[in-house]
Amino acid sequence: MIASKLPHVGTTIFTIMSKMASDYNAINLSQGYPGFDCYPYLRDLVSEYMRRGFNQYAPMSGVPILKARIAEKTKQVYGVQFEAESEVTVVSGATEALFSAVTAVVRKGDEVILLEPAYDSYAPAVELNGGIPVYVPLKLPDFSVDWEKVKVAITEKTRLIMINSPHNPCGYVWTQNDLEILAELIKDKEIFIISDEVYEHITFDGRKHLPLFSHELLKSRTFACGSFGKTFHITGWKIGYCLAPKELTTEFRKIHQFVTFSTSTPMQYALADFLEDPSRYMYLNEFYERKRDLFCEGLKETAFSFTPAQGSFFQLVSYSHLTNESDFDLAIRITKENGVASIPVSVFYHNKLDHKLLRFCFAKDDEVLEKGLELLAKVKF
Ligand SMILES: Cc1ncc(COP(=O)(O)O)c(C=O)c1O
């Protein structure tokens, strides 16, 4: 028998719920992927580069033109300069960036602060590297950071803090105040940051995404992980990037080159061309805000209570006023009885803490959302 390195990890809830959605012919608002296609032009660019023979290994850290475009975009959108050749790395999805960054930093016995609920790849990456996850819960009802608890969690052994803004599943968007407090907390310590910013272009109600690297001190400690999957509706392509100061990037690339070595060549060239026009991603806030509003408007006709998400393409709903049923049981029941699949939020907690919340993905066509809402209005408690 092989001794499992991750004995607690089984089939993820995303696989379970998507399979159940298909088995019961339910509307799948569980897994976080867009229900619509990418721009045809982007698809055509990939085909074009394949036809032209761009089909062999890309350079380990990414094709130069794409790294340059990512650096230009970062400068344009956030006013922050990264050196394309030494500080930008193209990776096979943000998941790879997160894993490679954790591996670059975490040594056996190091403590890593994870703010819960947390994306499911963080803790396994830490554990596989011999690190010890230290869980700090976010503060209800808005899931902002409980800075007093973070302060208490920091010890001599803390090596890394993992951040996610805009947040999956809760939609919280970090403020300037959050950045300042974090900087103050780590300034005299040797603590690094991994900042998962895959929903950077999806913020609502006039909020602006504040990358951690927009703060000078935080920039010097941060690996920022981005994903083209979320920005261009191409989650299946698994392509993203990591921005970090030169010294950190050097260590990051030592890991990246032995995890995947490099990322799909024709897709990199296609994305480099596609990035030329900022309107191809700057419209996203508005695009998803309209979908969030449509979804929230419909939720008013259901028994659930909710606060509109600040960012990301997820909406949480609460039902603690309706039943004591576990969120897991309720998600399954609604899929089977009502035909709408969601994700129980307890799966994002290491101890399966159940606040009686479900997560719905609203990155779907309007008709799908409308149908889903109609069915959700019929849920019986
Ligand atoms: C918070 C968060 N981080 C990372 C990822 C993974 O991104 P990618 O598909 O680029 O690996 C996701 C995808 O759902 C996510 O929600």
From TrEMBL:
Pfam families attached to this UniProt entry: Aminotran_1_2 (PF00155)
Q: Which InterPro entries match?
A: Aminotransferase_I/II_large, Kynurenine-oxoglutarate_AT, PyrdxlP-dep_Trfase, PyrdxlP-dep_Trfase_major, PyrdxlP-dep_Trfase_small
Please verify whether the record's keywords include Transferase. Answer: yes
Q: Is Transferase included in the keywords of this UniProt record?
A: yes
What keywords would UniProt list here?
A: Aminotransferase, Pyridoxal phosphate, Transferase
Q: Which Gene3D superfamilies would you find in this protein's record? A: Aspartate Aminotransferase, domain 1, Type I PLP-dependent aspartate aminotransferase-like (Major domain)
Provide the coiled-coil residue spans: none
Give the residue spans that cross the bilayer: none
Q: Name one GO molecular function term.
A: transaminase activity
Q: Aminotransferase class I/classII large domain: which residues?
A: 26-374
Tell me its cofactors: pyridoxal 5'-phosphate
Q: What is this protein called?
A: Methionine aminotransferase
